[in-house]
Amino acid sequence: MKEEKVNTGVEKNEPLTGLFSPATIEEIVFKIKGFADPLCESEGMELVHVECQRETRGRIIRLYIDKPGGITLNDCTCISRQLSDILDVNLDTRWAYNLEVSSPGSDRPLGKPEDFDRFKGKIARIRISVPLDGQRNFKGLLLGFYDGTVKLDVNGKTVAIPYREITKARLFNYNGEIGC
Question: Is 64 helix (H, G, I), strand (E, B) or coil?
Fold first, then answer.
């Protein structure tokens, strides 16, 4: 990992002068997924989510990985070392970063349409970009993914949230088990 310090005053959607330059945060995440997804798959794991953000100590690249039965510290170390080598070759050396690899945890991100079916019956928090009935944040029971929408039971009322409008979705206090 690169440990040098640089000025990292870049906001979301602002072009960067480093990794895969010029690129937005979204483009960088897309490219990192392009490296990380096949790597995780080759190790028998699932790439759950990738985040890239600015923090006081520089850029943070966070990967959340999983596999049946859960992941171990060795799994995280394996992916971290291999991906770090790949990123070191493809990063502009002026772009300092820290790579963090971990399990999705109890607030597991939901990003793919199949995630909303896989965790049907679990409580989720969903944020959307365009208000729906004056609301952007929802918390309720996942009912699944249907025809481009995520259905959520919010206080006994079914809410259909357009998938394309979801900016963030996470399980709420997920304990790692599916079903009863």
Answer: strand
Give pTM, 2 decimals: 0.70
29/37 Cα distance (integer angstroms): 11
Specify whether domain 25-102 bears CATH 3.30.300.70: yes
For the ranges 16-30, 35-49, 130-144, which has the lowest average pLDDT? 16-30
What pLDDT score was predicted for residue 174? 57
pLDDT of residue 43: 95
The one-character DSSP state at 9 is -
Q: Is 134 helix (H, G, I), strand (E, B) or coil?
A: coil
pLDDT score of 23 = 66
Task: Reduce the DSSP state of residue 87 to 3 states and report it.
Answer: helix
- The pLDDT value recorded for residue 105 is 84
C-alpha 27 chain-centroid distance = 14
Q: Are 124 and 171 in contact (CB under 8 A)?
A: yes
Confirm or reject CATH 2.30.30.180 for domain 113-171, answering yes or no.
yes
DSSP letter at 83 equals H
Q: List own/partner pairs for 150-154 with CB under 8 A and 24 or more apart.
A: 150/116, 150/126, 152/124, 152/126
Task: Delimit the domains of the chain by residue range.
Answer: 25-102, 113-171
What gap in Å lies between CA 9 and CA 19, rounded to an integer?
Answer: 14
